Amino acid sequence: MKNYTITVNGNVYEVTVEEGFTGAAPAPKAASAAPKAAPKAAAAAPKAAPAPAANAGAEGAVKITCPMPGKIIAVKTAVGTAVKKGEVVIVLEAMKMENDIVAPQDGTIASISVAAGQSVEAGTVLVTMN
């Protein structure tokens, strides 16, 4: 822990800052716990299991994930479309700003996992491509 004295608009504040805190570490643990719970539910209902397996087969090798939580404004491509590196595939609204999510390389869109109007969390797979 480190102590600092900060002055804001003439007011003096004593602040203690904890070192080594990583706010992002709990999110992956929570995210990895959720998928473990989902297969148990799928095992209880055998009819639900084949649908995710069919979608998994359609996924491409390259996954484009959501960099921050937000809302999908537009999907600018379709499955089977050839895209170039840097081409916009999704428009994401986060913090009242529109962010272009672009293709990381040349390829073909294999699957689209989101739709316009959908809210997404950071790390969510938006699009896969080959």
Structure commentary:
- It is a single chain.
- The longest helix is centred in the N-terminal third of the chain and has 19 residues, at 26-44.
- It is built from 2 helices and 10 strands.
- By secondary structure, the protein is α+β, with helices and mostly antiparallel strands.
What structural keywords apply?
OB fold (Dihydrolipoamide Acetyltransferase, E2P); four-stranded antiparallel β-sheet; 130 residues; 10 strands; 40% strand; 2 helices; alpha+beta
Q: Short description, anyone?
A:
The protein is α+β, with helices and mostly antiparallel strands and 130 residues long. The protein has helices spanning 26-44, 50-58; strands spanning 2-8, 11-17, 62-65, 70-75, 82-83, 88-94, 97-102, 107-112, 119-120, 125-129.
- What's the total helix number? 2
Helix content: 10-25%
> Which class best fits the helix and strand makeup?
alpha+beta
Number of strands: 10
What's the CATH topology label of the domain at 61-130?
Answer: OB fold (Dihydrolipoamide Acetyltransferase, E2P)
- Ends distance: 47 Å
Helix-strand blueprint:
Layout lengths: L1 E7 L2 E7 L8 H19 L5 H9 L3 E4 L4 E6 L6 E2 L4 E7 L2 E6 L4 E6 L6 E2 L4 E5 L1
Antiparallel strand pairs: 1-2, 3-10, 4-6, 4-9, 5-8, 6-7, 8-10
